[in-house]
Amino acid sequence: MIEKIAAFIFGSIVGSFLNVCICRMPQGESVVWPSSHCPNCKKRIPVYDNIPFLSYLLLRGKCRFCKQRISLRYPLVELLTAVIFVMLFVHCGLSYDLFFYIILASSLIIASFIDIQHRIIPDEISIGGLAAGFILSAVKGLSLKPAAWSYQPLFNSFLGIFIGGGIIYFSGVIFDLVYFRLLKKPPIQGETESMGGGDVKLLAMIGAFLGWQKALLVFFIAPFFGIVVGVTYLLTKKDHTIPYGPFLSLAALVLIFWADKIIQLILGVAIR
Question: Structure pTM?
Answer without folding.
Answer: 0.90
